Amino acid sequence: MAEEASGTSSSVVALPQKVTLYSYHLSSCAWRVRLALLFKGIPYEYKAVDLLRGEQFTDEFTKLNPLQMVPVLAIDGVTLVDSIGILLYLEERFPDKRPLLPKDLVQRAQIHQVVSLISAYIQPLQMGGILATIEAKFGKEEQLKWIQDIFRKGFSALEQILIRTAGKYCFGDTITLADIVLVPQFANAIRLQVDLAPYPTIQRVGEALNELPEVKSSVPANQPDAPKL
Ligand SMILES: N[C@@H](CCC(=O)N[C@@H](CS)C(=O)NCC(=O)O)C(=O)O
């Protein structure tokens, strides 16, 4: 990874006055935004939206996001929806606070390729609603096969990319947006009992990411709306 992405928090850009993240502890998309806010050192208020109880369908929440999904981020007097749009806003608004994209255009494109592979292929095909429909129509066994197939195709492609680009993390030894989207997907793979043996690079990078303090504090179990054990 080029040095330009390895900067520290040297920015003089003032922090926004109030930042509110609408999140659900188990949402992988909201987890991406929690991570970016933590890496960039932007304090935020956590507003829980209980997806299991259907709070995303209330009139109040639909006004914030007509697609009725988390995450939503209120920042700088605007309301932003969609995790990738939010990540790009944070990166462009606070480019010097722990940069998550390098300046090199080819590397940026490769990082966007990984972000897209995970956020536009792997994650949408295993959303809770889709898995519930498959289970209801075809049963638990077919649902598991569906999950395994998505991961097999998605992670095989990702492994081939990361073999060439990874250092300690997805692109060299610097955290980028690719790592931000990988963290929740890696956790989902483990939760859904995906065999990671065919993907040694993903496994190594995922485990290295899990050691970071920002990752530890952003995990679902550490969110205010996680069930108390
Ligand atoms: N492309 C959107 C997808 C957001 C998304 O899929 N959110 C899920 C949780 S990870 C959700 O809110 N689902 C609510 C539902 O399925 O009713 C993003 O990246 O933010």
TrEMBL record:
Its EC number is 2.5.1.18. It is an enzyme of class 2 (transferase). It holds the Pfam family GST_N_3. It catalyses: RX + glutathione = an S-substituted glutathione + a halide anion + H(+). Residues 104-228 form the GST C-terminal domain. Residues 17-98 form the GST N-terminal domain. This is glutathione transferase.
